[in-house]
Design a protein that fits this description.
By secondary structure, the protein is α/β, with parallel strands linked by helices. Helices cover 38% and strands 12% of the residues. It has a 5-stranded parallel β-sheet. It has a 3-stranded parallel β-sheet with strand order 5-6-7. Helix 1 (15-35) packs parallel to helix 4, helix 5 packs parallel to helix 6 (145-160) and helix 10 packs parallel to helix 11 (341-355).
Length: 402
């Protein structure tokens, strides 16, 4: 419905209008942050993921684009593009102004206030590698993503005491054959020294960002997301060894600057127990696992609590390092129903908190209009903003895992 309300002719800001928008939003956010300093509750110590309980949400589709999240935006600017790479290739010189306007408007301080009022204490914020390093030959846009990340993160930490996970969601060459990993159809990050070198440059830039923040203790660094080197969402032995070497390189770089910064490692779809033997137990690591139910298993809205409970009980691994569910959503493979949403949402929130260190829903704002099997469209099952608006979040409505 939203797509139909948008003109087919892109409303393209001129360069001067673009910079006016950009600076006005950053200035306004700076003023808001200053005005709320007296109410701030920022952390005084670095986060211990072994004891912390997260009630989180992702801010997907803001600083890193995915076609399915916002069909209205994609219809206006993306055309037939499969991913952000093609979006920018198609837009050419217009890519920068279009994305800068996106960064300035898609997430606002009022959204952070809304999330805080709903009990959210963690923001996982996806960024592309291009936010941190400009890679020769990449069509991805490098602009002021980090400035916007800083403004919203500082606001969330200072006013609400939230914790921010800085997620490097894509890596050079393509991390998983999907657009979200860098480029659709590409797996060229694996066994590619040049891609690895640029990845470490991105990591070092993100470390510097955290270390120079007003509250560096308000951040966790997540240097990778869903690395898989084959289309069936698995990783082969050589690929897993490459990921492990990258993990160790990240840990070394973080500890060289500030050994207190927590590091969140996302090992594709291999759990904590697969990776834990390679690290000293004293390292401030937390492992990120992702659980989805829209494909790959016979999940329905009716039996989704059973699947969630199974995943929650299996998530903890060997117990050496804490585990966090960094992405999950309640769309099922079949027979999705509106009436089940509140119960399934609260079942997941409760289960992840009971058996792991909590979770971050994917994602806060999601207006995907592709039909699902059963009732409604994707946005009905993926938008945490919708769940807040409909007062779904209530622990007493969930199924208790036993």
């Amino acid at each position: 419905m939203l797509v139909q309300l948008i003109s087919n002719t892109p409303l393209q800001p001129s360069p001067s209008e673009h910079y006016t928008i950009m600076f006005s939003h950053l200035a306004a956010l700076s003023c808001l942050l200053g005005a709320h300093q007296a109410l701030a509750a920022p952390p005084s110590t670095y986060l211990n993921w072994k004891t912390f309980k997260a009630k989180g949400v992702n801010l997907g589709g803001w600083l890193h684009q995915e076609a399915v999240i916002d069909p209205a935006f994609w219809s206006q600017y993306g055309g037939n593009a499969l991913d952000e790479w093609d979006l920018c290739a198609n837009l050419g010189s217009r890519c920068g102004p279009v994305l800068e306007q996106r960064y300035a408007t898609f997430i606002q301080p009022a959204d952070i206030d809304k999330l805080a009022a709903a009990g959210i204490n963690v923001l996982r914020i996806p960024t592309g590698y291009n936010a941190w390093v400009k890679v020769p030959g990449s069509a991805l846009y490098t602009g002021r993503q980090v400035d916007y990340l800083k403004s919203i993160s500082s606001y969330a930490i200072a006013k609400h005491g939230m914790h921010v996970i800085v997620d490097i969601h894509s890596l050079p060459g393509g991390l998983n054959g999907m657009g979200l990993g860098g480029r659709e159809g590409y797996y060229d990050w694996f066994l590619n020294q040049t891609a690895l070198d640029y990845s470490y440059q991105a990591v070092e830039a993100a470390i510097a960002f955290i270390q120079s923040a007003d509250y560096p203790q308000g951040y966790t660094l997540a240097p990778i997301n869903e690395p898989v080197d084959v289309r069936d969402m698995s990783v082969r032995e050589a690929g897993a060894a490459w990921v492990l070497a990258y993990f160790k390189g990240v840990v070394e770089r973080v500890q060289r600057v500030n050994a207190k910064i927590p590091i969140m490692l996302q090992g594709g779809f291999k759990g904590e127990a697969y990776w834990s033997p390679s690290f000293d137990a004293a390292t401030p690591l937390v492992f990120d696992v992702h659980n989805y139910y829209f494909a790959g298993r016979p999940a329905t809205s009716d039996n989704l609590p059973q699947w969630i409970c199974i995943d929650a009980k299996n998530a903890a691994g060997d117990g050496k390092f804490p585990v966090f569910v960094g992405e999950w959503a309640i769309q099922a493979t079949a027979n999705n129903t509106f009436a089940s949403r509140a119960a399934n949402l609260n079942t997941g929130i409760n289960a992840w908190e009971k058996y792991t260190r909590g979770s971050a829903y994917w994602t806060y704002r999601f207006s995907g209009n592709a039909p699902v099997d059963g009732e409604g469209v994707q946005g009905d099952y993926w938008s945490y903003e919708t769940f807040i608006n409909q007062s779904f979040i209530n622990p007493s409505k969930g199924v208790t895992c036993t």
